[in-house]
Design brief:
The structure is a single chain. The protein has 128 residues and is mostly helical. The protein has 5 helices and no strands. The chain has one domain.
Length: 128
Amino acid sequence: MNEDDNVLKELILGTIFFGIVVAFLGIWWVDEKSMFLLGLCIGIMLSVWRAVHIQRSLTVLLDCGEKQAQSKMVVSYATRTLAIFVVLWIMIYMDMGTMSILMCFVGLFGLKAGAWMQPYTHKVLQRG
């Protein structure tokens, strides 16, 4: 396993840990527990997919020329953004409710939290 795979694994673990913490903290205060958890899980899964997609996109971009890399980077970013809009549109179309859509947004921040926690998850994984 190379360094990029280790960083991706640490990023995903941090993202999932964020989702678990939010689930345990929030479940006590909401009435719509199932919609709360469903929306959070959808957001966390989307964040994990985004992390994997970013890593794969960067691997491809490193083998391209500058102009080609720029256009591929734009397409890659647009793909991730479109995926978010499609998932949110499906949630709205299926009338999943405000709670699940709100928690999906919170889950999308899991990628940022995972990036913030990556140095700490790295230390924990290096010990084990």
